[in-house]
Amino acid sequence: MAQSRPSAAPVAVHPVAARPGGRTAAVRKAVLTATEDALIEHGFAGIDLPSIARSAGVGKTTIYRRWGTAQALVADLLDDMATGSVSATRTGDLDADLSANAELLVRTLTHPRQGPLFAALIAAATHDRDTKTALAKFYRRRVEEWSLPILDAIDRGDVPANTDATAVVRHLSSPLYYQFLTTTTPLDDNAAELAVRTTLAALHAHCFTRSGAAPTSPAAATTSPRPRR
Amino acid sequence: MAQSRPSAAPVAVHPVAARPGGRTAAVRKAVLTATEDALIEHGFAGIDLPSIARSAGVGKTTIYRRWGTAQALVADLLDDMATGSVSATRTGDLDADLSANAELLVRTLTHPRQGPLFAALIAAATHDRDTKTALAKFYRRRVEEWSLPILDAIDRGDVPANTDATAVVRHLSSPLYYQFLTTTTPLDDNAAELAVRTTLAALHAHCFTRSGAAPTSPAAATTSPRPRR
Predict the structure, then answer these.
(1) Smallest Cα–Cα separation from A167: which of A150, A189, A155, A190?
(2) Which segments of chain B are extended strands (E)?
(3) What ipTM is given for this predicted complex?
(4) Is A57 helix (H, G, I), strand (E, B) or coil?
(5) Chain B touched by A115 (CB under 8 Å)
(6) A11 beta partners
(7) Is the CB of residue A209 less than 8 Å away from at least one CB of chain B?
(8) Could you read off the pLDDT of B126-166 as tens digits, one per residue?
(9) Please, are residues A5 and A16 in contact by the beta-carbon 8 Å criterion?
């Protein structure tokens, strides 16, 4: 799917096709769009239920009955975003697949709407426990989806069988989020490429092998970059 | 300094010794402490100048004249935090020095006061341009300080001369901040150790060598984990 539309918006927050579900689905879509708008414009503090109802063109009662709190609205938005995310690229070449993931992430974080949305969600999670739980769940699902190409590489025998695929995906994402959140340096393809190179280097140095099944041969121990002292 | 008090609070936001400067310095300290309290409690939206004046026990006129805006208060707080940060550990062993940095960062982000403070500052930077600039400056200074042990390693010949020391420090910090901000998994020494191992692996694979002076020998090219296609 990702390969057939490489220039599409990286995270399909609003799928083009109408969802099944009729009026209920249409209300949800309108409410989640209004929630997104409020987050982008004012952050979590901007999620006022009566304003969301007005923007979405739905009754206040509906919002209060179906969601009830700003936290519930954000959790549902994250649930919707997880469902609409672009599938992992799986070309059969680990380097290419990791590059596709890193480049997708750069496109998402530099996207004029999705960048501020992710920043607002991360910010909201820093001072709201329910939002933090919902955000962690969103990333857990994204990371699992993007673990598939690493599981493919395990199947091909390109990386050790005891590699923690989710740790690889998280490592790949980390420097891009860190740059996004703590610097004013814009993300670009160089940042994506460095993330891929460092991740592959760590992978080949067996940094992500699960400790319960660590390599035990003397050769493997010798090539370990940081023997225990 | 860090070695002589390993269990001290990791970032000395408020040095124990009184600073020179008399009343002006005392006012600044009281105002910055009140700003910190407001950030930890309510985030950036909680920085109301009259409330800060009241909490700090100083006149509103003083706050408006000397700082004027919430952004200026946060920028001054970050400036103060940068000055008070713990110096880099420099034992002469790169692994030990990187471990000290990663463990300090874990202690900072899990500290009951400093963790929420950093989270609030990062959150504030996502929706305020001046705060983002001030935060980036704070991290630039911290990263430069913590580059010193890597420059030492370059001097010793332990890592290539064209290594970008600041890129190494940023890489080391990234997974810890990513875990802190996007998961509910508490940071611990295992996270610090993984950050060190991945950073050393990437360092030994020449991921952080400046492109203008990349290794050109065939041997170096062969060991590169991701040759250009």
Answers:
(1) A150
(2) none
(3) 0.84
(4) coil
(5) no
(6) A85
(7) no
(8) 989 999 999 999 999 999 999 999 999 999 999 999 999 99
(9) no
| Residue A187: both structure tokens together | 């993300």
Token pair recorded at residue A10: 């990286």
Q: Tokens 């199947």 label which residue?
A: A155
- b (16+ CB within 10 A) / e for B113-124: ebbbbbbbbbbb
Query: What is the reported pTM?
Result: 0.85
Domain covering A83-204 assigned CATH 1.10.357.10 in the classification? yes
Q: Could you tell me the pLDDT band of residue B7, with boundaries at 50, 70 and 90? A: very low
Which residue is listed with tokens 């414009």? A41
Q: Do domains B22-68 and B83-204 have the same CATH topology?
A: no
Report the CATH superfamily, name and number, of domain A22-68.
Homeodomain-like (1.10.10.60)
From the CB of residue B166, how many other CB atoms can be counted at a distance below 10 Å? 16
Shortest distance between the Cα of A102 and any Cα of chain B, in A, equals 14
For chain B, domain boundaries: 22-68, 83-204
A177 contacts on B by Cβ (under 8 Å): 174, 177-178, 181-182
* Tokens representing residue A99 in the block: 């590059």
Contact B122 A123 (CB under 8 A): yes
Q: DSSP H helical segments within chain A, as ranges?
A: 22-42, 49-56, 60-66, 70-84, 94-110, 114-127, 129-145, 148-156, 165-182, 189-204, 218-223
